[in-house]
């Protein structure tokens, strides 16, 4: 009797834990709902998503995932602007792959020069990563290491952007920890030479970028699957909005 009771209690605890910690793809856990997370993609269609150029989204949902390849625009964006947030998503790359997670896009007609990009790319794990390799703050700061699981496997990204501070965790490894206040001079970045971002034909400082804008995923000519896109809005101090 006692053994049966213990086994039943253990099963109940495991069930409660799984309910609070786990969820099916493209669903929020009970804890995420409680904390105020937003589910940005339903796994079925492109509701609330649009191309940056205003054209219809023509890519099909594949594997319950966003597919940016030949979506009809350069960036597939969520139809709401965000300022301070944590963004989570799972990404699977083709071979080869070049894409990106765009943050705070100010001008949808010029996402490259008015938004930040976290690089998605097939990268040789044996090379020293550059500002153009997987996990990089594109053209600004290289990742600390190549933390991808590789093409054909799912990578988990978690990006926190509060004020001027950006952190990127890829597969539970922090690969970027940047403070844009360190780059107040036009063209300055974390490595040699200058970054490519410009405004009105002149190099711009990273602190000059808008503090609010669109998020999105890039079509750079390769297939890439993105699912479990979740966002938690934060205040200027990095706390959950009340």
What order do the helices and strands follow?
Answer: HHEEEEEEHEEEEEEEE
Biggest β-sheet strands, sense, barrel: 7 strands, antiparallel
How many domains? The number is 1
Fourth-tier CATH superfamily name = Exo-inulinase, domain 1
- In CATH terms, what is the architecture? Sandwich
Q: Label the structural class.
A: mainly beta
- The top-level CATH class is Mainly Beta
Q: Give me the count of strands.
A: 14
Unreliably modeled segments: 12-19
Mean pLDDT: 93
- Rg (CA only): 19 Å
In one word, what is the shape? Answer: globular
CATH topology: Jelly Rolls
Helical percentage: 10-25%
Strand proportion:
25-35%
| Helical segment count | 3
Fold and architecture overview:
By secondary structure, the protein is mainly beta. The chain has one domain (25-233): Exo-inulinase, domain 1 (Jelly Rolls, Sandwich), CATH 2.60.120.560. Helices cover 12% and strands 33% of the residues. The chain contains three helices and 14 strands. Strands 1, 3, 5, 8, 9, 10 and 14 form a seven-stranded antiparallel β-sheet that branches. The chain has a five-stranded antiparallel β-sheet with strand order 2-4-13-6-7. It has a two-stranded antiparallel ribbon with strand order 11-12. The longest helix is centred in the first third of the chain and has 20 residues, at 2-21. It starts with a helix and ends in a 9-residue tail after the last strand. 36% of the residues are buried.
